[in-house]
Write a structure and sequence with these properties.
This protein is of the alpha+beta class and 440 residues long. Helices cover 37% and strands 21% of the residues. The chain is built from 14 helices and 16 strands.
């Protein structure tokens, strides 16, 4: 995890937050063919695919389902970064709804990608993970595309970076002028409560195979804090991702816990209809030729600011969760419900529509250690895999497009990954590369 530093400002030592300066990263030599998708556009599966296609590297089949491997234009790093995403119109917001065989094939491919990236001398840290916030639309950020997409990327040694890549932001100024941005990197007490819930459910009533889970995760050394839940992995990142059962017995059960927690907490405090949110997103993603007016109506519903329930209603709802969640969490919810002032009731302005989180698995070349981290940012979308788990801000330079050598390096890295996927670390019976697009 990247650490804050201090700097002399007007005769005082001020805390500073690291900020990565990362340009857009078009794989296509003609970046005008792409743009950052709007909220309405992300609800149209064919449009999303058409926009991403210029950055495509290769198409894969995972248990028969098409998945695309592409370079995201809104990257997190100047180093290697890739995204893999279902290439059809299914509504799959996260691992909780991904078929088991398909999920295992996806993880196997990610493991082979990780092997290549872990050997890249420019990568000191390698991360794979996803942002999850399909119900968190509206005020301050949300999952960029309301379907599962895994990000895999490398970060260099920040101590050796120049000022055109790494700068620092004054924490005091951020707190005053951009509190939600600051919250996305420093975390909050809700991460402790979410960690308690995760630990409680893992130890009692966990849906996954505990033998597989315990082979991969050191639950006894897990740490819970403001910056999320940090679980040490017993194997290197690439071996973990290729381990049979990593999706079905580890990632998917955790995702189900987090999904249900999001539903319970949202319904406890607000009148947001989570089932209707899911239904409308599925309708938008799976209905061909939906009119712009229909999508606008769905977007209007998804971005509606929910109303906070009254104190009595909140407390009644919390009592209904007793026994399902740890007593410490129930007490925290009671205290939180009582701290909301009467004048704050009504539209929940400043809150997100529903809980969101990021789940990331991380390898540190310097220490040789790997971790799985779950991080929530209730007021600011999913918090991001980088912002939340690494504690850094992301911003774009004044010239948003990269030099040509960066694009060339990404193509070379994509070629090496394509060559390694189905040969270097063995084959998976449900995973194979089908078509390569590296001619772009």
């Amino acid at each position: 995890m990247l650490l804050e530093t201090t700097a002399e400002v007007s005769g005082h030592r001020e805390q500073m937050i690291p900020k990565l300066i990362v340009p857009f990263q078009p794989f296509d030599p003609n970046p005008d063919r792409m743009h950052k998708l709007t909220s309405e556009e992300t609800l149209c599966g064919p449009y999303v695919r058409d926009n991403i296609a210029p950055n495509a590297a290769f198409l894969m089949r995972c248990a028969g389902a098409p998945w695309m491997f592409f370079v995201p234009i809104n990257g997190y790093t100047r180093g290697s970064q890739f995204t893999i995403m279902p290439w059809d119109d299914r509504a799959i917001p996260g691992p909780e709804r991904l078929p088991k065989e398909e999920g295992e094939a996806v993880m196997f491919i990610c493991g082979n990608i990780a092997s290549v990236m872990m050997e890249d001398p420019e990568n000191e840290i390698v991360i794979i993970g996803y942002n999850w916030s399909p119900r968190s639309w509206g005020q301050s950020g949300y999952q960029s595309i309301p379907r599962l997409h895994y990000q895999e990327f490398g970060l260099p040694n920040l101590a050796n970076l120049s000022d055109d890549y790494l700068q620092y932001a004054n924490r005091k100024i951020l707190k005053r002028e951009q509190p939600l941005v600051l919250a996305s990197v420093v975390g909050g007490f809700y991460n402790i409560e979410l960690g308690r819930i995760l630990m409680h459910r893992i130890k009692e009533g966990f849906e996954g195979d505990r033998q597989v889970f315990d082979n991969l995760v050191d639950i006894e050394q897990t740490k819970v804090g403001f910056k999320g839940t940090r679980m040490p992995l017993k194997k290197p990142l690439d071996e973990t991702l290729r381990f049979p059962g990593i999706h079905a017995e580890v990632i998917q059960p955790l995702a189900k816990i987090l999904d249900q927690t999001a539903v319970d907490m949202t319904r406890t405090f607000t009148d947001q209809d989570t089932e209707e949110c899911d239904r409308q997103i599925e309708e938008a993603m799976t209905t061909p030729n939906m009119s712009p007016e229909q999508r606008q109506a769905i977007l209007k519903f998804l971005t509606r600011v929910p109303n906070l329930y009254s104190a009595d209603r909140r407390l009644r709802n919390i009592e209904g969760l007793a026994g399902k969640y740890p007593e410490e969490t129930i007490n925290y919810l009671r205290n939180r419900a009582n701290r909301i002032l009467p004048e704050e009731e009504g539209p929940a302005v400043g809150l997100k529509n529903g809980l969101a989180y990021a789940l990331a698995m991380r390898f540190d070349k310097k220490t040789g250690q790997s971790f799985l981290t779950v991080y929530a940012a209730v007021a600011n979308g999913s918090g991001g895999i980088v912002e939340g788990t690494e504690g850094v801000l992301l911003t774009r330079p004044s010239d948003p497009f990269p030099p040509e050598e960066m694009a060339v390096r990404k193509r070379i890295c994509a070629e090496s990954i394509a060559a390694a996927l189905n040969s270097r670390n063995g084959y998976h019976r449900f995973a194979q590369v089908e078509q390569v697009y590296l001619h772009l």
